[in-house]
Design goal:
The protein has about 475 residues and is α/β, with parallel strands linked by helices. The protein contains 21 helices and 17 strands. The structure holds iron/sulfur cluster.
């Protein structure tokens, strides 16, 4: 869908009292998804920026089922199968959509077959009309807008695209106020839809569609790649007679209880960090423990060391041997270090900014890689004790700014953070400035168990027991 049409669609909902949402296909893959989501957030429904999904999440399945499945009038909804688009847009998604219908379809939850015609099953008009008018999906779910217009039902809208139908109503203010007696020819799509007659349910990960004979012919004629690949099953009308016997008009059964609990396969890694590149800021005086340093390097997917003084040949060749970049900088500027780090490391995902004596264990990395973090947030381990701030510094140090590099320990941010899009990196001279500039609701502090120990081994538990300064 193009931007102008999307805007028109959202604007046409003025006065609508229900939820309005984005669905697909996979809406998060649209190249302008973020722009669309922000426009919807600013122009439809409750004026609020949601704050959930900012803390690190270990159990995303629980988050989905406990926090995101409550319907809200004037709320905003997103239907997504997760994946790379959801990951990329995680920040805007969490702050925009009240209700998220997430389902990766890689589990045993069931979905009802749609591509089934009542005529193939011998259902006459007398039986059909009451069934159609009591269609549980239409009564519980949504009208829809596609590039071809507005429709009374989302399935009708999808079928109109699939079978190159005549299109929907003009997208104009109040189009959604139509009542069933005004649905007119759009009801013709019900003839090609098995939802109201309560057809077969298939395991979501089966990837095959149940189709009745006349629909199979139509799909073949329309060049369906799925049908061509043989990913279908002819629906046997004999079975539906059994199914119909316990039909209860209006009772939703599309997502049985089991499906509500299980929406994400445990092996789905699409929402976890892809990689972590590190920027290490060395103090003027340092001693490198080669083994510990190598462990730090091994815990990251790339490492840049930034230093002021010269480093000797031995350390240089050690860095080279373990593929560590180094950068000598006369002036200390935290923001420019991040900017240069992102460029040199070609970072596209997470960046860890670490003090030189951080010890990052493989276990800690493993835990981070199986935790969901919000790319809009800045996660910071408490700094070292501030005793060095009180030390006297000479004027040369003050000018260079390097004396301020004393308190930073470990922090974690994403190069896609919305905050960074509006940041002039060079204006962030110190880590303290970085913290004070960051959106207060999106910064989380973590405590080391023993703050006096610079080389404390970090633990994911520290990350989860955060000190929320928002
Ligand atoms: S039968 Fe199908 S097309 Fe008709 S209202 Fe129900 S879901 Fe929509």
């Amino acid at each position: 869908m193009e931007w102008d049409l999307f805007k028109k669609a959202v604007d046409s909902l003025k006065g609508f009292n229900g939820m309005a949402g984005l669905m697909g296909g996979e809406p998060t893959l649209h190249p302008e998804f973020e722009r669309f989501a922000r426009y919807l957030g600013e122009n439809y429904g409750i004026k609020e920026t949601l704050k959930r999904g900012r803390k690190p999440i270990r159990n995303f399945q629980k988050y989905i089922t406990e926090e995101m499945l409550s319907i809200k009038n004037h709320g905003r909804c997103l239907c997504s199968s997760l994946g790379s688009g959801y990951y990329k847009n995680y920040e805007v998604i969490q702050e925009t959509f009240h209700y998220q219908l997430l389902n990766d379809h890689q589990h045993d939850g069931k979905h009802q077959g749609i591509l089934i015609s009542r005529k193939d099953l011998g259902i006459d008009d007398k039986e059909w009309i009451p069934l159609r008018d009591a269609c549980w999906l239409q009564n519980n779910w949504s009208a829809s807008i596609t590039p071809k217009g507005a429709f009374f039902c989302e399935i009708a809208a999808a079928l109109d695209i699939l079978f190159e139908g005549p299109g929907g109503w003009e997208i104009e203010p109040g189009w959604w106020e139509r009542t069933p007696d005004q649905f007119g020819r759009q009801l013709g799509w019900c003839e090609l839809c098995g939802i109201a007659i309560r057809g077969p349910k298939t395991c979501a990960k089966d990837e095959r569609d149940d189709v009745s004979p006349s629909l199979l012919e139509k799909l073949k004629n329309s060049g369906s790649p799925k049908i061509a690949a043989g990913k279908y099953r002819i629906y046997n009308p004999i079975d539906i007679v059994k199914e119909r016997s316990d039909y209860t008009p209006g009772k939703p059964f599309y997502l049985p209880n089991g499906d509500k609990k299980e929406r994400l396969n445990n092996s789905n890694r699409t929402i976890f960090p892809r990689d972590i590149k590190g920027i290490m800021i060395l103090p003027d005086e340092f001693r490198i423990n080669y083994e510990d340093f190598k462990n730090v390097r091994d815990s990251l997917d790339g490492l840049l060391v930034i230093h002021r003084g010269k480093i000797n040949k031995e350390i240089k060749s050690f860095f080279k041997s373990i593929d560590v970049h180094s950068l000598q900088e006369e002036l200390f500027n935290f923001g420019s270090f991040i900017k240069k780090g992102i460029q040199i490391l070609e970072a596209k995902d997470w960046i860890a900014i670490v003090a030189y004596n951080c010890f990052l264990s493989p276990k800690f990395r493993q835990d981070i890689m199986t935790t969901v973090f919000n790319p809009g947030c800045y996660y910071v381990y408490y700094n070292y004790p501030n005793q060095k701030k009180e030390e006297k510094t000479n004027s040369k140090e003050e000018k260079s700014g390097w004396n301020k590099n004393e308190t930073h320990s470990f922090s974690f941010l994403n190069v896609r953070a919305n905050q960074l899009k509006h940041t002039e990196f060079e204006t962030i001279a110190t880590h303290e400035q970085m913290i004070s500039n960051w959106n207060k609701g999106k910064i989380f502090f973590f405590k080391l168990k023993d703050q006096k120990q610079c080389n404390t081994q970090y633990s994911i538990d520290d990350f989860l027991n955060f000190d929320d300064r928002s």
